[in-house]
C-alpha cells in the first residue's frame, strides 16, 4: 500500500500499553518506511530507556540512531475521570521524578480495578467477557497463547475481546458501544488534566494536548456543570499547556464531527495560533494491522516535517 508519510510521527504506542509493536519493532518499522523521528508515548507508563536484544541490554536511543531514527521519549496521560479522550502528552520529562513514579502506580491500580469491573458489567448485560480468559489470555500473531499482567490491561484490550466475540464489528465500534451506555461506561479515577500539566512541569517537561477534537463539543459533569470544548481547552492553556496536536487521523477514530483530517488540522492551527507555543502531529499508531484490523492507522500517516520538528525540538528532547 502506497502511503504518504510524514518524516516525524510524535504519537505512537507499543506493547508497553495497547500497541502491538514492541519498542524495538516500532523503531525497525520506522526505519523500513522512512520515518526519521518517532515518539514513544504509551498510555500511563514511562517509555523504555533500555531494551533487551539477543540477551544484551541496549540503549534504545542508540539502537534507533544506528538505524537512522531518532526516538523521542514521551508519556500519554489519560486525564479527567468524567470526560473521554482527554489525553495530554508529556515529553522530555524526568522519568525518575518521585511525583511521576507515584502517578504511574496510582494509574496502574485504578485501571486494573475498573477494567475488571467493566468485564463483570458487560457479562451481566449478556455480553460475556471474562477478564481472565478473554482479556488476560490472548493469542499473538504467531498463534501462540500469551498472558497479560493484569496491571498492563488497557480498555482497548476489552474492546478487542468484544469484537472478537461478535458483540461489535470492530474494537472502535465496541468503544462507542461502551461509551454511549451509562451502565457500561465504568469510570476509573484519572488524573485531572490541570494536575497533569502541573506534574509535567514539575518533571521539567513539555505538555501537549493530543487529538483535541476527540473531546466532546459540550461536556456535561455529574454535578450539573457544563463546558464547551473551547472553554475546556482554554482552561488547559491558561494552566500552561505548551502545544497541541494538529495533524491527526481523525477519520480512523471515534471522532463525531464531519470535518476531513485536513479540515480538522486547518481549524486547530487557525483557532489556536498564538495561544500555544507550537503544533505537533502524530498517527496514534498502534500497529493494529498486525491484528487484522480493517483500515488501521499507519506509522507516519500523520505528523510533522523534519524542519518543523527541528524548530520545536528543544521542547520535546531538550537542548
Automatic annotation (TrEMBL):
Domain of life: Bacteria
Record InterPro entries: PHP_dom, PHP_domain, Pol/His_phosphatase_N, Pol/histidinol_Pase-like
SUPFAM superfamilies: PHP domain-like (SSF89550)
Domain Polymerase/histidinol phosphatase N-terminal intervals: 8-81
Short name of one Pfam family: PHP
Listed GO MF terms: 5'-3' DNA exonuclease activity; 5'-3' RNA exonuclease activity
UniProt cross-references to PANTHER family, sorted A to Z: EXONUCLEASE, POLYMERASE_HISTIDINOL PHOSPHATASE N-TERMINAL DOMAIN-CONTAINING PROTEIN
Protein name according to UniProt: Polymerase/histidinol phosphatase N-terminal domain-containing protein
Organism, as annotated: Neomoorella stamsii
Amino acid at each position: 500500500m502506497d502511503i504518504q508519510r510524514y518524516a516525524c510521527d510524535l504519537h505512537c504506542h507499543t506493547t508497553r500499553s495497547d500497541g502491538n509493536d514492541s519498542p524495538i519493532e516500532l523503531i525497525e518499522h520506522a526505519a523500513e518506511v522512512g520515518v526519521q523521528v518517532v515518539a514513544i508515548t504509551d498510555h500511563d507508563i514511562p517509555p523504555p530507556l533500555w531494551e533487551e536484544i539477543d540477551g544484551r541490554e541496549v540503549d534504545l536511543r542508540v539502537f534507533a540512531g544506528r538505524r537512522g531514527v531518532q526516538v523521542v521519549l514521551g508519556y500519554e496521560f489519560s486525564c479527567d475521570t468524567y470526560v473521554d479522550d482527554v489525553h495530554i502528552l508529556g515529553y522530555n520529562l524526568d522519568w525518575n521524578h518521585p511525583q511521576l513514579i507515584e502517578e504511574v502506580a496510582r494509574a496502574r491500580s485504578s485501571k486494573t480495578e475498573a477494567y475488571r469491573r467493566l468485564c463483570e458489567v458487560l457479562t451481566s448485560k449478556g455480553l460475556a467477557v471474562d477478564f481472565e480468559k478473554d482479556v488476560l489470555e490472548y493469542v499473538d500473531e504467531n498463534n501462540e497463547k500469551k498472558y497479560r499482567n493484569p496491571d498492563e490491561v488497557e480498555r482497548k484490550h476489552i474492546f478487542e475481546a468484544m469484537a472478537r466475540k461478535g458483540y461489535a464489528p470492530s474494537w472502535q465500534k465496541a468503544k462507542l458501544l461502551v461509551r454511549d451506555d451509562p451502565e457500561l461506561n465504568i469510570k476509573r479515577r484519572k488524573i485531572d488534566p490541570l494536575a497533569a500539566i502541573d506534574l509535567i512541569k514539575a518533571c521539567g517537561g513539555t505538555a501537549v494536548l493530543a487529538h483535541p477534537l476527540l473531546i466532546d463539543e459540550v461536556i456535561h459533569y455529574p454535578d450539573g456543570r457544563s463546558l464547551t470544548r473551547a472553554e475546556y481547552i482554554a482552561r488547559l492553556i491558561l494552566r500552561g499547556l505548551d502545544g497541541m496536536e494538529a495533524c491527526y487521523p481523525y477519520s480512523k477514530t471515534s471522532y463525531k464531527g464531519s470535518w476531513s483530517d485536513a479540515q480538522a488540522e486547518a481549524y486547530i492551527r487557525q483557532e489556536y495560533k498564538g495561544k500555544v507555543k507550537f503544533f505537533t502531529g502524530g498517527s496514534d499508531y498502534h500497529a493494529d494491522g498486525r491484528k487484522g484490523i480493517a483500515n488501521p492507522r499507519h506509522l507516519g500517516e500523520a505528523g510533522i516535517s523534519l524542519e518543523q520538528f527541528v524548530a520545536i525540538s528543544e521542547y520535546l528532547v531538550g537542548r
